[in-house]
């Protein structure tokens, strides 16, 4: 229960109506303690402060409190929905993984979890904030070609161990906006994990290839003009090419090699399953573009 001085008590809705500033409020509240966090220390202007955060609620709503006196009193009735909402306000549940275009369409200050490849990684730098000098490291996360977002890793998160090209999962980051660009920033609850990228199904147009003993390396287009390279086992393509009887022999009725068949079909469209630029499955049919 929560109170400060011995005057007439108000409910939380009335407090919000009468007092919407950051100045101390000197009226008692009879309420339910929904959640509390362990005390934390922060530094401001060379001085260290200890602060504890609480969320309190009654049947009219909830509030966050940081400076208080607590007195016990008889229980009050508050619905489970309000209690859970109040508890989540102080420590929201970890958000699910969301794709980058959806994240950028979300309101500023919302929490997100993002997965993707580290496509840029700047050296940590020292910046001046209201609380003093701290470090920040800016990276760029890419979940699909052209789906990119900047992520600012503050304080200890700037020292996280991962490298360019790693696929990472970053939980509980907040959406910000700087110079009209939507970006992400770490929070006190952020967690970073280096993980494996998911297997994706994409449509590609093979425009060129190189070959080794066991693999093809395809130069392929995605979205019409974006070129990328993929590795594919020869046996996956060989099984598909064997079904095209018209390409099995040349004019002298000599058997064609798989390389010759594939070259004759370029540019070719196919749907593939890919993970880390390695093709694990090629969907039938492998089709030549008619106007090539």
Written description of the protein model:
The chain is mainly β and 292 residues long. The chain folds into three domains: 12-90, no CATH class; 100-194, OB fold (Dihydrolipoamide Acetyltransferase, E2P) (Beta Barrel); 200-288, OB fold (Dihydrolipoamide Acetyltransferase, E2P) (Beta Barrel), CATH 2.40.50. It is 13% helix and 46% strand. The protein contains five helices and 16 strands. It has helices at residues 12-18, 80-90, 100-104, 234-241, 258-265, and strands at 32-36, 40-44, 47-51, 54-58, 61-65, 111-121, 125-129, 132-144, 147-154, 167-178, 181-194, 200-211, 215-222, 226-233, 268-275, 278-288. Strand 2 (40-44) and strand 3 (47-51) form a beta hairpin. The radius of gyration is 29 Å and the shape is elongated. The termini are far apart. Mean pLDDT is 83; it is low at 1-6.
Helices and strands in order:
Blueprint: H1 12-18, E1 32-36, E2 40-44, E3 47-51, E4 54-58, E5 61-65, H2 80-90, H3 100-104, E6 111-121, E7 125-129, E8 132-144, E9 147-154, E10 167-178, E11 181-194, E12 200-211, E13 215-222, E14 226-233, H4 234-241, H5 258-265, E15 268-275, E16 278-288
Parallel strand pairs: 9-11, 14-16
Antiparallel strand pairs: 1-4, 2-3, 4-5, 6-8, 6-10, 7-8, 8-9, 10-11, 12-13, 12-15, 13-14, 15-16
Distance between the termini: 76 Å
Task: Please estimate the helix content.
Answer: 10-25%
Broad shape: elongated
Q: Kindly give the count of domains.
A: 3
- Overall pLDDT: 83
Main sheet specs = 5 strands, mixed, barrel
In spatial order, strands of the major sheet run 6-8-9-11-10
The CATH homologous superfamily of the largest domain corresponds to Nucleic acid-binding proteins
Total beta-strand segments: 16
């Amino acid at each position: 229960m929560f109170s400060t001085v011995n005057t007439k008590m108000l409910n939380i809705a009335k407090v919000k109506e009468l007092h919407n500033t950051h100045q101390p409020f000197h009226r008692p509240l009879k309420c339910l303690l929904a959640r509390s966090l362990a005390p934390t220390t922060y530094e401001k202007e060379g001085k260290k402060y200890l602060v504890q955060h609480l969320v309190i609620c009654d049947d009219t709503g909830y509030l966050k409190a940081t400076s208080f006196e607590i007195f016990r009193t008889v229980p009050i009735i508050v619905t489970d929905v309000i209690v859970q909402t109040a508890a989540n306000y102080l420590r929201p549940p970890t958000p699910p993984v969301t794709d980058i275009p959806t994240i950028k369409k979300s309101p500023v200050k919302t929490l997100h979890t993002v997965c993707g490849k580290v496509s840029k990684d700047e050296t940590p730098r020292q910046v001046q904030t209201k609380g003093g000098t701290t470090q920040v490291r800016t990276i760029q996360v890419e979940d699909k070609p052209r789906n990119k977002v900047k992520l600012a890793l503050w304080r200890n998160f700037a020292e996280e161990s991962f490298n360019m090209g790693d696929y990472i999962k970053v939980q509980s980051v907040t959406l910000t906006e700087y110079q009209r660009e939507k970006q992400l920033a770490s929070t006190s609850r952020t967690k970073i994990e280096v993980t494996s990228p998911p297997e994706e199904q994409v449509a590609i147009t093979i425009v060129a290839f190189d070959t080794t003993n066991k693999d093809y390396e395809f130069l392929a287009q995605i979205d019409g003009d974006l070129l990328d390279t993929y590795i594919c086992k020869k046996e996956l393509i060989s099984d598909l090419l064997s079904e095209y009887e018209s390409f099995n022999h040349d004019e002298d009725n000599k058997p064609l090699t798989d390389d010759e068949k594939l070259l004759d079909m370029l540019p070719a469209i196919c749907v593939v399953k890919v993970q880390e630029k390695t093709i694990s499955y090629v969907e039938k049919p492998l089709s030549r573009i008619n106007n090539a």
